Amino acid sequence: MFFNKRSAGILCPIFSLPNAEGIGTLGKCAYDFVDFLVETNQTYWQVLPIGTTSYGNSPYQSFSSFAGNPFFIDLELLKKEGLLHQEDLDADWDTQHNINYAHVSHHKYEILKKAFKNSSFTKVQEKKAYLQFPWLEDFGIFMSLRATHKDQARVEWGECSTKELLPNEASSYLNEEGHFHVFLQVKFYEQWFELKKYANARNISIVGDLPIFVSGDSVDVWVNPEFFLLDEQGISTSVAGVPPDYFSDTGQLWGNPLYDWDKIKEDNFTWWIDRITRSLELFDVLRIDHFRGFESYWAIPQGEETAINGEWVSAPGQELFDLLKEKMGELPVIAEDLGIITEEVKELMVHTEFPGMSVLQFAFDNHSDNPYKPENTIENKVVYTGTHDNNTTKGWYLDPQNTQEIHNALEYFPLRETVSEITPELFVSEIIEIAWSTKAIISILPIQDLLFLGEEARMNTPSTVGDHNWSWRMKVLPDSSKKQWLKDITIKHHRI
C-alpha cells in the first residue's frame, strides 16, 4: 500500500486562499498556507482541480486537462520579475467578499496582458515551452480559435470544431491571443513548480484532484474527438452524470462527453496513461473523482433535461489500472468511491488497492452496517468531515433536516454528559476529532470546518449553478488558538 503512515491534511482550493487580488494565487498566500500546514503537523494539502474554467466557474469543467488557471498567477511575483509595476497591481480588488469572477477576470486579464507585452516573450522561448509541455501548442491554437469565434463553444466553430477538420495547418491559426495564453501557461507553471518545491521541501505533499471526465468545450476533445462519443458535428451523443442520489432527486446532469472506451483500448489507453503521468508531475497524490465511473458510468441521452433517464454502461477500469501499474508502479491515488457502489465497484477497489473515501456527514444514520460510521471505517480509507460538495459541518449541524443524524452523532461525543450545552463550535470540533481518531490511514478536513464556518461558506451545491458555487474564500488564515488545537489533536491521534 502506497499510504503506510497515519497522517492528516487540509482541503483548501487555491482560489480560497486570502490575499489582496480578489482570488487566491500561487504567491505569498500559498506559501503562508504551506507554513500553516507545517506548524500544525499536517502532511497533505488537498486542492481542487487547478485548470482554466468557463461558465459556472466550476473547476470540474475546464478548457484543458493540463492548462492551469491564469487567475492563480500571482501578480506580485510578476512584479518581482520586472514584468509589472506597482501601479499595475493597484486595481480596485474586492477583498471583503467572496470571489467576483467577472470582476477578477476583467482586471486580471488586463494586467496579465501588460505583463505579456513587457515580457518580450520570444518564439525561441515559446518553442522551448512546447518541448517541456507537448500539449501547449494545441492549447494556444484552441484558445486562438475561441477568441476568433467570440468565445462560443467548440461545437459552434463549424469546420474548426475539431482539429482534424481544420482546412489549413493547425499552427496557422495561432494568433496573438493564442501566444498570450501560451505565455500565461509558462508563468503559471513556473509559479506552480516553485510552490510545489517549497511544500515538498517541508514534507508537505500536494493532493491534486483529477476529474474523470473532461469538458466538451475543451482542447482534449478538440484534439482527440475519436476518443469520445460524438456525432459528425462533434456533438456528444450521450453525456455524463449520475442518477438520483443524496444530493438531488433528479440526479446530476454534468453534460460532459463520454469516452469511446473501445477506441481508447485500441490505442492501448495512451490518452489516459499520458493524462495520469502528467498529472503526477503536478501533484504528489491524485484524488480521482467519480472513481466508480471506471467500472460503469451513467450515460444520459443528449437533450435530456435531468439525469433520471440514463443507463449504466460498463467501463474497462481494471484493464486501465493494471496497465498503469505495469508502466508506472504503485500509484499514489485516492479513489473517490462515493455514490452508488455496487459489488463490481467494490471488487475494482479491492483489485487496485487504492484507498477510498469515508465522509462523516454520511455516517450517522440508523444502519449499523453503514461503512462510513467511525467504528466501521477501515485503515485503507481517507476520512473526511465533509467534501467540497457537502455543506460545512456547522451548516450541516444547524440544518433542521438533519435532526436525527445529529442526535446519532452526539452519541459518539465523550463530552455530551459533562457539558451544559453543545454549541455549533463544540459540535464541529468533536466531529473533527472523531475523524482524526478513526482507523483511516489519512484524515482530511475542509478549511471551513477548522474556521467553524456555516452554510455561507459552502463550496458547492451539486446540481445548481450560480455565483454561490466555487466562490468562497478565506479572509485570513486560522488564528493561533485554532492552529494549536489542530496540532494537538494531530499529535494525540498519532497522525504525524
SSE order, as H and E? Answer: EHEHHHHHHEHEEHHEEEHEHEEHHHEHH
Measure the end-to-end span: 18 Å
**Spatial sequence of strands, sheet with the most strands:** 9-6-3-2-1-12-11-10
Quickly count the helices: 17
Say what the CATH topology is. TIM Barrel
**Helix/strand-derived class?**
alpha/beta
**What sort of overall outline do the alpha carbons produce when their principal axes are compared?**
globular
Binned, the helix content reads 25-40%
Number of strands: 12
Q: Mind telling me the CATH superfamily name?
A: Glycosidases
Q: Which runs of at least 5 residues are low in confidence (pLDDT < 50)?
A: none
**Into which percentage range does the β-strand content fall?**
5-15%
Named at the architecture level, the CATH assignment is Alpha-Beta Barrel
Tell me, what is the CATH class?
Answer: Alpha Beta
State the oligomer: single chain
SSE layout and pairings?
Elements: E1 7-11, H1 28-39, E2 44-46, H2 75-80, H3 86-89, H4 101-119, H5 123-132, H6 136-148, H7 176-201, E3 205-210, H8 219-223, E4 238-242, E5 252-257, H9 261-266, H10 270-282, E6 285-288, E7 296-301, E8 311-314, H11 317-328, E9 333-335, H12 343-352, E10 356-359, E11 381-384, H13 393-398, H14 403-410, H15 424-437, E12 442-446, H16 447-450, H17 480-492
Parallel strand pairs: 1-2, 1-12, 2-3, 3-6, 6-9, 10-11, 11-12
Antiparallel strand pairs: 4-5, 4-7, 7-8
